[in-house]
Amino acid sequence: MEISDLRIALYSGNYNFVRDGANQALNRLAGYLLDQGAAVRVYSPTTDTPAFEPTGDLISVPSVAFPGRGEYRFPTHMSSVARRDLQQFRPNVMQISSPDFVGHRMVSWARKQNIPVLASVHTRFETYPRYYNLAFLEPVIEAILRRLYRRCDAIVAPSESMAQVLREQRMNYDVGIWSRGVDREVFNPGRRDLEWRRSFGIADHEPVIGFLGRLVMEKGLDVFSDSIDELKRRNVAHRVLVIGEGPAKQWFEDRIPEAIFAGFQQGKDLGRGVGSMDMLFNPSVTETFGNVTLEAMACGIPVVAAKATGSQSLVRDGESGRLITPGAIREFADALQLYCENSNIRGEHGAAGEKRSDEFSWDQINNTVAQSYLRLIRQRELGHGPISQEAIR
Hints:
Layout: E1 7-11, H1 21-35, E2 39-44, E3 57-60, E4 63-66, E5 69-75, H2 80-89, E6 93-96, H3 101-112, E7 117-120, H4 138-150, E8 154-157, H5 160-168, E9 175-177, H6 194-198, E10 208-212, H7 221-233, E11 239-243, H8 249-255, E12 260-263, H9 267-275, E13 279-282, H10 291-298, E14 303-306, H11 311-314, E15 321-324, H12 329-341, H13 343-357, H14 362-381
Parallel strand pairs: 1-2, 1-6, 2-3, 6-7, 7-8, 8-9, 10-11, 10-13, 11-12, 13-14, 14-15
Antiparallel strand pairs: 4-5
């Protein structure tokens, strides 16, 4: 069997109604598979105002706005229309990227049809409750995730550090890597634009600490702002540049009023924004990969990140950035202060990060997923299905 023989049913809880690293990766994967001659059908909640056009055929799944986070949709059920379309499409492999109710139903359907399932893990959902004073729910969510992923033939994570977490959580016996790529046409050191910086009142000599991503609390906005406070107490000269939008924007603006909020950027404008920073500060512990970290590295700027999944597989501590214990405000401030005050180290670490980013080619990365599909189909033809729960206890 070749890639062109694949018929992939892909379920996503968010394929294109919000622009983030996970669904952009899914769209890139669909595009790669279609270019190789495979058939791809995507099932996902939809809206009348998507963030971007979907790649491939998209079948809408019934959903409602998520309470308190209206930009997200919560899938409610697999409609009869979607079920009929799935039956007519006749997939020979399935991928699910969202561990919600419909994701469970998709896996059940695939098991009845004797179709192998690959689950891709894009975020650490079990860590989200701690940002909303609901940490007691984490074990419950982890148990639900484990039940789903053990019913799949294999799972893939964006980084080795995240894959190791999944192994330790006993989510599945077969855990692989589906990394992320970076568009070097968009993200490279040549995108640095001093005139653009000056338009915000940033002097050429002022070190810029950047934040890139959706403005939501689970991205570590509290740790970011506390660390900036520590720099101010030390009288460390710096500017803060925030690129992104989200429901916590007002909170973030109130917390660091001296920061420059450049809003949502995309394409070459995003590359210019990232390249015009002097360092990226990414305190989040919810990332499974950290696209923003890789994009900053490709632009030749050092990264100060939490020592967590994703970042640990990208940043080499003391070589291309700093990895700090999550929530350690003083240590984060120490790392930022070093880069603010020593342009030579900043340049050396940025150059090392750019060299490392050359290893991430989108076509090569997406081919590994296609090969995983083919392997799971061969295993199923030999009579091998998902490993039993008892085998991985």
